[in-house]
Design brief:
Layout: H1 2-12, E1 35-41, E2 44-49, H2 66-80, E3 89-90, E4 104-105, H3 112-140, H4 149-153
Antiparallel strand pairs: 1-2, 3-4
Helix pairs in contact: 1-3
């Protein structure tokens, strides 16, 4: 059954090679919900407050709770092996690692990775709704797993696997000459 799931996903997405992995669980050292890991101070990250209202949410629900947004962002970061600075903009040009989240402009669309992430989020939502839930789940029931960022990225910025190239065509079989007539 798992093999069928992998084949179905490959057919749906050229980007997939069929390996479906589970998303990793966040580290137990992550800050409490409603807070964000923040600036390093003596090797310890202090929690920074997260605003109650968010701006420029274009794909995620506009009424998403603080806890849900933090959990979602951590899921993206874990699934893609990145940190906030990969998609979001720091107002501090010296903070190349994104250590001080208090200096971030999270609403900014200046980083193209954020635009790509939105497009990929829409892609996974469409695959899950129109393919997995509509076509695969009726056949597989609860074994049908949704596609997530981790399905392809597996903790890497860019998926490490590429779709297999099509098999080369079979060589033509030589024609068998007709049998000679004996006289």
């Amino acid at each position: 059954m798992r093999k069928f799931h992998a084949l179905a996903l490959s057919a749906a997405l050229v980007l997939l090679t069929g390996a479906v992995a589970q998303e990793p669980t966040p580290s137990p050292q992550t800050p409490a919900a409603g807070q964000s890991s923040g600036q390093q101070q003596g090797g310890v990250r202090r929690a920074l407050p997260i605003p109650d209202k968010f701006t420029n949410l274009q794909v995620l629900p506009k009424d998403i709770s603080k806890d849900q947004l933090v959990q979602t962002m951590r899921g993206f970061a874990t699934s893609t092996g990145t940190r906030c600075i990969f998609c979001h903009v720091s107002k501090d040009p010296n903070d190349k690692e994104g250590n001080d989240l208090s200096k971030f402009d999270f609403a900014s669309d200046a980083n193209d990775h954020k635009k790509i992430a939105r497009a990929m989020l829409i892609m996974t939502q469409n695959i899950n709704k129109e393919f997995i839930q509509a076509q695969i789940k009726p056949l597989m029931g609860d074994e049908a797993e949704n596609v997530t960022c981790f399905t392809c990225h597996q903790g890497k910025k860019h998926p490490q696997h590429k779709a297999a190239p099509p098999a080369p065509p079979a060589p033509p079989t030589p024609a068998t000459p007709p049998a000679e007539k004996k006289q």
